[in-house]
Amino acid sequence: MSLTPEILLHGYSVGIFPMAESRDDPELFWVDPKRRGIFPLDGFHLSRSLMRRMRKGGYTPAINHDFAGTVAACADRGETWINDALFDLYTALHDLGHAHSFEIHDDQGLRGGVFGITLGGAFFGESMFSARTDGSKLALAHLVDHLRRAGFTLFDTQFITPHLASLGAIEIPRAQYRLRLEQALERPARFASTPLETDPYSVIQRNTQTS
């Protein structure tokens, strides 16, 4: 299946997303799960240990500072569904302003991150990685806060894992997901232009007020 950035965006808009069987498999296929993973933006769970790590500091959040590096790091594992075709498509969507990375940096460089696709008020989380303790958790905590402030109403995680569930992700039926997606697509949201919050204390405070 050959995809263009425009076809890819249409797929997301109707509730499906592409994957490859492996890094070396050039073929792509659409996925439409019966049950969909989402992060309720008012239900992110900040554990005491994660809050302690945030207060300790020693890291800097960033948006789109190294999009290609974030996608490459997400694909740098034994088994991955991100092949060369998807990497190129995500890069094209990034150039069009529809794909973004939320990153965690420290004195050793890029150490954690999440990347995803944006349409209206929907953020479609594609993958994440961690190269330091809690690197992906830090990225998710700051990302959820950013999405709320930027006007997003849907954070799609596609599937759910024990790791995501421990942070507050839930599963909903396909029909309910599509209803939420339809509503989110009608909302304006501003991922890249919304100011980045770098103060972890403010992120913790807002999360406590909304969760």
Automatic annotation (TrEMBL):
GO terms for biological process: protein catabolic process. It catalyses: L-phenylalanyl-tRNA(Phe) + an N-terminal L-alpha-aminoacyl-[protein] = an N-terminal L-phenylalanyl-L-alpha-aminoacyl-[protein] + tRNA(Phe); N-terminal L-arginyl-[protein] + L-leucyl-tRNA(Leu) = N-terminal L-leucyl-L-arginyl-[protein] + tRNA(Leu) + H(+); N-terminal L-lysyl-[protein] + L-leucyl-tRNA(Leu) = N-terminal L-leucyl-L-lysyl-[protein] + tRNA(Leu) + H(+). Coiled coil: none annotated. Its main location: cytoplasm. Its EC number is 2.3.2.6. The keyword Secreted does not apply. It holds the Pfam family Leu_Phe_trans. One of its GO terms (cellular component) is cytoplasm. One of its GO terms (molecular function) is leucyl-tRNA--protein transferase activity. It is found in: Cytoplasm. Keywords: Acyltransferase, Cytoplasm, Transferase. NCBIfam families: aat. Functions in the N-end rule pathway of protein degradation where it conjugates Leu, Phe and, less efficiently, Met from aminoacyl-tRNAs to the N-termini of proteins containing an N-terminal arginine or lysine. Belongs to the L/F-transferase family. HAMAP family: Leu_Phe_trans (MF_00688). This is Leucyl/phenylalanyl-tRNA--protein transferase.
